[in-house]
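Fill-in record for Hut operon positive regulatory protein.
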Amino acid sequence: MSQRYGSKKIAAVAIQMALTESREEEKKLKDEYQQMGIKTAAVDYGGEFITAVKKIVERAVVAAKREGVIKETHADEGAVAGATREALSQIMPKAIGLNVGGKIGISRQHDHISVAVYFGIGLLHLDEVAIGLGHRAAS
């Protein structure tokens, strides 16, 4: 039986998933967290920030469903979408009008769902980096 973790641990897991640099590292972490009773997903994204917001939210919801982090219910999808929008709102001041590229990490245990976005922001090689984090409770 797995230990029950709180929102702080689940948020840290989402950040770690967003920081993975390869599919292999992502899979290894996913397997480790699964043993702890924590479901995870991660998905890459890149594009112009303003036009990408809708697609980023959609990709987070689809990845969470595909990986079994959430069920296909209105409440679960809304929790992931809301947490993703919260995370994006935290990096918006740096990203508005620029390109972003990076990864979205999602984690869940019981009623805690966290979404972390880790993006390089900017033009060419003059990137800024930012992490946004959102959390929601779901049934």
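KEY FINDING: The chain has one domain: 7-137.
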